[in-house]
Amino acid sequence: MKQLWGSRFSKELSETANNFNSSLRFDKRLSKYDIEGSIAHAEMLSLQGIITEEEKTLIIKGLKEIIEDIKGGKINFECDLEDIHTLVEKILTEKIGDTGKKLHTARSRNDQVAVDIRMYVKEEIQEIKRELIELIKVLLSIAKEHKDTIMPGYTHLQRAQPITFAHHIGAYIEMFKRDTERIKDTYKRVNILPLGAGALATSPYNIDRYKTAEILGFDDICLNSIDAVSDRDFVIETISDLSMIMMHTSRFCEEIILWSSREYQFIKIDDGYSTGSSLMPQKKNPDIAELIRGKTGRVYGALVSILTTMKSLPLAYNKDMQEDKEPLFDAIDTVKDSLFIIPEIIKTMEVNKEKMINACREGFLNATDAADYLVKKGVPFRDAHKDAGRAVKYCIENEKTLDTMEISEYKKINKLFEEDIYKYIDIKKSVESRRVIGGPSKEAVEKVLKINEKWVKENE
Fold first, then answer.
1. What pLDDT shows up at residue 80?
2. Is 146 a catalytic residue?
3. 385 counts as catalytic
4. For labelling alongside 343, which of 9, 238, 270, 387 has CA 20 to 30 A away?
């Protein structure tokens, strides 16, 4: 088939080259945005007197029919056309005749595809934002339920200090809040209209780019036509945001995987989100959480792919930029799928409170409290830290815990230890003593939960 650009060539593109060159198999998902952009372009052309009112009406009628044909499954996307823009123009011309050929006046496929992708990304960002907010709501609900559920806090995967499950969950709330704010900020840079830039040098026609932006709901226009068609920063920034989201979901899934293991037994994943083994009948595997963790790598790959594609491109448009779509589409699909399922895993898991608090009673998680006890008696922290370490060493050598050490044994380490040390190193009291905003005490957690509930309302 003769391409849109074929009149200057003496022979058609070979079948193998055409198949390699064509993007229709994946950019067909841009059909909705391509047609919406074309409708806005036709309206602007008519307002500027570049096409007649009658021509505009006929073009828009034809484009709306194509939308309905796509919804009804009447369009064959399995053809040898180069891209979605070519297909839409071909179908439109078949429907309304030569008037359909006037639609491409004052635009190029370079600015056309740029506006299509921006419209697509704008819509998907809004959906991802909604999914993030729903995830945060689920996490808030879990946190409210577990303000008194004490568990070990970890550093280096070693038990460190007692906290609450609510406080631990709160860390992920903050991560996903940042993700939400990041994509909201990215939206501002996506929402800039490139249409009207043409191939790279605008148009001799008296077009009104601001009117097109208004019709399509863009906040502003790209102020340099070369940048308008060669910019894919908004794609890179979007996939970067998605990579951060996946990094946070992956970290959470890693903890779900660890906590559900026999070694931890902090939680039990619902059977609906677990799988078994074809060989070992006893197995219950956290496969869904593992898949989310694994899919993080493909989103990272999408980011590296587009960064590598763009790194050496001279201005303005180059065919290399066709490679922006598949990684973008895949990254968006992967993040949406992951954000859709992870709240279900969280909502349905069972929390083993007893296992969590028992884990706090082993491993000397109250050693810092013993040091703080001495500090309050006037001992410099470095000396107090040393004495608490000596107490831990004594317990390890004598198979004791800080709770079971005799006061006489404490006094051999430092005479300032008194009977009230046992109250001070109590696990629950240790948690509740940390009332600083951002800390694990119930009082501090409740303050933060209220702040975050307000944040959700403001960002929904």
1. 79
2. no
3. no
4. 238
